[in-house]
Amino acid sequence: MSQQFDVVVIGGGPGGYVAAIRAAQLGFATACIDAFKNPEGQPSLGGTCLNVGCIPSKALLQSSENFHAVQHDFAKHGISVEGAQMDVAKMLERKNGIIAKNAGGIAFLFKKNKVANIHGLGALKGRQGDKWVIEVSNDGAVVDTLEATHVIVATGSNPRQLPGLPTDNQLVLDNAGALALPAVPKRLGIIGAGVIGLEMGSVWKRLGAEVTVLEAMPTFLAAADQQIAKEAFKTLTKDTGLDIKLGVKIGEVKTGADSVSVSYELNGEATTTEFDKLIVSIGRIPNTQGLGAEAVGLALDERGFVVVDDHCRTNLPNVWAIGDVVRGPMLAHKASEEGVAVAERLAGQKPHVDFATIPWVIYTSPEIAWVGKTEEQLKAEGVEYKKGTSSFAANGRALGLGQAQGMVKLLACAKTDRILGVHMIGPMVSELISEAVVAMEFKASSEDIARIVHAHPTLSEVTHEAALAADKRALHG
Known about the structure:
The chain is α/β, with parallel strands linked by helices. It has three domains: 225 residues, FAD/NAD(P)-binding domain, CATH 3.50.50.60; 122 residues, 3-Layer(bba) Sandwich (FAD/NAD(P)-binding domain); 114 residues, Enolase-like, domain 1 (2-Layer Sandwich). The chain contains 14 helices and 22 strands. Helix 3 runs antiparallel to helix 4 and helix 3 runs parallel beside helix 6. It is globular, with a radius of gyration of 24 Å. One of its GO terms (biological process) is 2-oxoglutarate metabolic process.
């Protein structure tokens, strides 16, 4: 006898587990199927984000920043430290503890909200009457069968592989391998100057590795506002010490007994470089493996994404899809909001997810964050705009922190003053960007932020000053 549910969510990452919790809160009998296992072979909820992505990378970034501060920054505060050493095993143990705590927290929330927590790989098998049949397998063996009125596909994404170069997470690493290196490699190569490449490169550079980043695009951080991107390139190469090469054409990659050689062409010149470890971070692809999409006729586009409309409906009745497996930015917070929205639509509500106000963050040092349009986009679209910029260099709080690099840039409509985009590089801008998101959601003008009282001394004063500068009335610039 199959277990009966109103809603079955396939995937327990930030999109799936949040969708399941919200559906249960709204009174639906809900189950969540998730196949992820930790290195010990135990179920671990939270998907890529919690287990081998967003959360563990932030843990390692903080550890590496602390080690760097001991070596380079504490002396300025009058603190002398001799013989500082990094225990990589202890650092990884702390990281794994954070993962376990968060995964356990999701399991607790499932129990609290009466979500059935089912471990295994979920596959759509077809319909029986008005119910979808979902088969759950573990290590290739069928362990359960569920029936559901509604199915939410939240299967996420996988790392894109470099053609002809399989990832073994020994010499050639993806995001999971980059987060679990047992020792600091002397020579670390990274293919791809995206979020993962820059964050992982920063971690291992601070801990002593020589890091070379090879990027095919001629433009650094092409998705970001280029004034901010140029500032980021300068700080990441000059201060962090990453060797970032742009416009690289990757050739043959060979793995040896204990090293990897990468042949590439740069500015017409052929080079071969030997690395102890190589991280491949060239993007992610939607994960529909084992889902049974073809068997039930679930439509996928030419890139492998599940096809959905603006409300996350697929082409199949009562089948929805959210997060990395559908169109839009591959961001955990986007997936979560789509999950909430679908659950609320099932309950007859009318939620809304605005892609135009989804924030982006890169957790390098300094951090990079933005929301809305870049200056390049506004120019290309022929939009008349004005801009205001302000630096952290003279901000009292930033100087006190010893992190006075970077700036805030605000773009507003020249006619209406409505905020069109806000771009930041500097200390804790992952937190500061929320003010801009709220302002844009409420259709605020640059004058609105300029007239809001910001506490002193705070980092947020730089946002205030950028808003003032947009109206050519900066007080400290």
